[in-house]
Predict the structure.
Amino acid sequence: METHTRLFLIRHGQVENFSERIYNGHKDVDITELGVRQMEAVAARLKDENLEGVYCSDLIRTKRGAQIIASEHGLIPESRSGLRELNVKLWEGLTANEIEERFPGTFDKWWREIADYRIPGGESIRDLSNRVIPALTEILGANRGKNIVLVAHGVVNRVILADAMKLDLNNIYSMEQDYGCLNIIDYFSGHTVVKLINEQLLSENQF
């Protein structure tokens, strides 16, 4: 049987300002008590897996989850700034209503040009993909044939899944990525197989 690298791709747990529906981007916000429990649920799910590496972005909301999962396996998480969430710059810390008030029509333009609309002062989805996929490729190359974890962000995960399935970046929001969700991707030498998308182990309704 052909050897493959298995990626357990996880979205960080619920963030502290989730109820305000703020665009965080690179804003460094921590996770809630539920967010911690969501990461503990993922850790329990992966407890018997032979994990050999745990990775995350350099933002606290992914680092907390990575530490929880890694501790079950005696591993130390490795953070990468290239795996940060989409840089929303001038939208950072604002709600959708506040963004529309300050930048009228911006959401209409964004939804018409999802892949290539560059948020004022920030990134487009394609910009994000152009930094995330090389960072992921480097990690995969260093872990051939192993099982590894990546705790990342909603848009980052969607871009990784889209790349794995060769989907147009304009369609990434057709995939949901809930707080604390688990995805599984197998990387073979010539192809990639997505085994699981957006498994929720502990939702808000269970808390």
The first strand starts at residue 5 and ends at 11. The domain at 5-206 is CATH 3.40.50.1240 (Rossmann fold).
